[in-house]
Amino acid sequence: MTEQELTAMTYEEKEQRLDEILNRLDRSETPMDQLSSEAKEAAELIMSMQATLKSTKAELQKVFLEMDRQKEQLDSAASADRD
């Protein structure tokens, strides 16, 4: 699988492809001459999926930090209005 093909896949497509590979390996259906290439593809899929998860986690953290900041501003404004 090329880097371009991997980049074009969604997380869910990567997950499905990884499941296919792992199921074949688990059932010993992968021919010995393809074992190395499928293991390499599985590793690439896993690394790409981990990168997606890491990026998504970072973005979510930013969103929640911004939400907390806005809540603190609203709480401060509400407290000032009561005084």
What does this protein structure show overall?
With 83 residues, this protein is mostly helical. It is built from 3 helices and no strands. It is rod-shaped, with a radius of gyration of 22 Å. It starts with a helix and ends with a helix.
Assembly classification:
single chain
Distance between the termini: 64 Å
Helix segment tally: 3
Counted beta strands? 0
Whole-number radius of gyration? 22 Å
Taking all residues together, what is the mean pLDDT? 92
Unreliable stretches covering 5 or more consecutive residues:
none
N to C succession of SSEs: HHH
> What is the makeup of the main sheet?
none
- Class by SSE composition: mainly alpha
Gross geometry:
rod-shaped
Strand content: under 5%
Task: Estimate the helix proportion, in percent.
Answer: over 70%
Topology:
Layout: H1 3-8, H2 11-26, H3 32-82
Helix pairs in contact: 2-3
Short structural summary:
The chain has 83 residues and is mostly helical. The chain has helices spanning 3-8, 11-26, 32-82.
Key descriptive features of the protein:
83 residues, 3 helices, 0% strand
